[in-house]
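Annotated sample (chain length 291).
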Amino acid sequence: MKDKILISGFADEISSDFDAQLKTVTELGMQYISLRSADGKGIADYSVEEIRSLILPRLESAGVKVSSIGSPIGKVGIADEEGFARQLSQLDTLCQICKVLGCRYIRMFSFFIPEGEDPQNYRDSVLSKLQKFIDVAKKYDVILIHENEKEIYGDIGTRCLDLMESLADPCFKSAFDFANFVQCGEDTEKCWELLHEYVAYIHIKDAVSTDNENVVCGTGEGKIRELLTKAIKEEGYEGFLTLEPHLVLFDSLSSLETTAAENIIKTNKAKDGADGYTMQYRALCDILDTI
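Output written by the structure step:
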């Protein structure tokens, strides 16, 4: 099992400094990261040449590989045509970056829906725009993994399933995020039943519904232990489990959330990013040991 389950993580939660990220990761014995930002710069703002000259040599020196690109693709308003056009161009560049890094996956989203409006009213537009993203990914044989983020079209299980069934493409799969489902009032077990055949990537993040705050994995309402047991032992899941602790306020958090960061992480659960990342890693290892 250990050869088929690989632990990665959003290392920018450790520090904005890329060398500090790699230091903590390698000290833990991890061999993968999900690359979301490095040296305070978001991955979508890097050029292919910058990745080749500034990022890849440091990864190679540390002996660390990239499991996925933590992109912001699809994290724009559904009616933002200018933003969508910009992201189409960014996605092409990100696919090229994948090839440089030897990476298969790009994490992405399904567009913010105007507050208070019925997401179903935007379904056709969402599907049309996602198909254009998929068309770009297919040119490079890259797999887009859709994260069930809050306040986007695919924020709940049934709409995530709708996307998977309607677009039905080997270059479009699901990234399962336990905490986001909890924070949307969803039962993660029911969501897993809906989506498990489409899940190609799993985020290790937990939360409680009382105040929607993130907590150490296995201590919240995400049912992480139970669902990982089911996924790995009963269904034969193979691939990445990617740490996304959200246990301390980190530099790039404000760019990831639509609400104030302090509403997501009300109090730091660790002394700093490296400590929070280590807590999450060890908690996940404990869960895997019991499995």
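Annotation: The first strand starts at residue 5 and ends at 9.
Annotation: The chain has ten helices and twelve strands.
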